[in-house]
Amino acid sequence: MENLQIPINLFFQSLGMWLAPIMQFFSFLGTEEFFLMVMPAVYWCIEPRLGIRLGWMLVLTNWVNGIAKLAFHAPRPYWVSAEVKALSSETSFGMPSGHAQNAAALWGLASTQVQWRWFRWLSLAIILLIGISRIYLGMHFAGDVLVGWAIGAVLVWLFVRLEPGILEWAKRQSIRNLGMVIFLASLLIIAGFSLSNVLFGDWNIPTAWVSLAAKQTPNTPIDPRNIEGGFTLGGILFGFGLGAVWLDRRYGLPTGGSREQRILRYLLGIAGVMILWYGLGKLFPDNANAISYMLRYLRYALIGSWVSVFAPLLFRRLHLVK
């Protein structure tokens, strides 16, 4: 099946290398890093409840994508064909495309919440271009992108359909009960990654995949069975989710302020994110063992709680928010 799709990658790459920086830009719009920069901006400065929705969806879509990748354990184009140029690099399995799925889920969800028609057309264009960029860059087959789009669309449909009932249930719960549910949900995320990996049994990554990938991306060896993403998502869910619930019940979510105040909120907040992300990343070990995984969970729980509660409390203290 992969061999039948390689000509599609080669066709897009034949359009010329001048497209590479453009496609890398659109590819960036579908990364976790991009959404981790944008989601706090929405939460702190524009519409906090939309920011919370994007935060929930960011965790949900990446959890589903991570488990789906492990379930399909399919290669990327440059792992199986020396003709396809690797104009970027990835370490995880290919099916489904995480960029395409994230784009469909997050830009799609945002377009259901924002009433401007131009924003919906812009979201659709970005979703399409992100998918095409992944084919051009040699990171995904066309089928990976189509499946990613489909899963993202289903997640948006489920989110919009189920959210009202979940919110009504949450209103009747205490902060303690909600905190326990969020913590258990974070453990479920980790268990999903771990169980999916265990089900591989004795299956090993074909040496041909490793060899072809190493020729084009020698500094980024593939490691598709790594489960640290589960601890990242679990930590973010616990820290961000519990913090947002507590802040909403205790003080209300961050709103209002002048344009200058909103800009200052974002600059202060994102500086805190970078300090925690980079500083703790240097301090904590990054190995495939239980201690490293637990510290990763703690690191991202602190980042999530900074975004959801500690940064807004700082904004209040500095009189940058109502």
What is the H-and-E element order? HHHHHHHHHHHHH
As for the number of domains, it is 1
Mean pLDDT: 88
Instruction: Tell me the radius of gyration.
Output: 20 Å
Helical content band: over 70%
Number of helices: 13
Instruction: Tell me the fraction of residues in β-strands, as a range.
Output: under 5%
- Molecular shape: globular
The number of strands is 0
Oligomeric state? single chain
Structural class: mainly alpha
How far apart are the termini? 56 Å
Uncertain spans:
none
Largest sheet: none
Written description of the protein model:
With 322 residues, the protein is mainly alpha-helical. The chain has one domain (2-317). The protein is built from 13 helices and no strands. The protein has helices at residues 2-13, 20-28, 32-46, 48-72, 77-80, 98-113, 117-136, 142-171, 175-198, 207-216, 228-250, 259-283, 290-317. The protein is globular, with a radius of gyration of 20 Å. It starts with a helix and ends in a 5-residue tail after the last helix. The mean pLDDT is 88.
Secondary-structure map with pairings?
Layout: H1 2-13, H2 20-28, H3 32-46, H4 48-72, H5 77-80, H6 98-113, H7 117-136, H8 142-171, H9 175-198, H10 207-216, H11 228-250, H12 259-283, H13 290-317
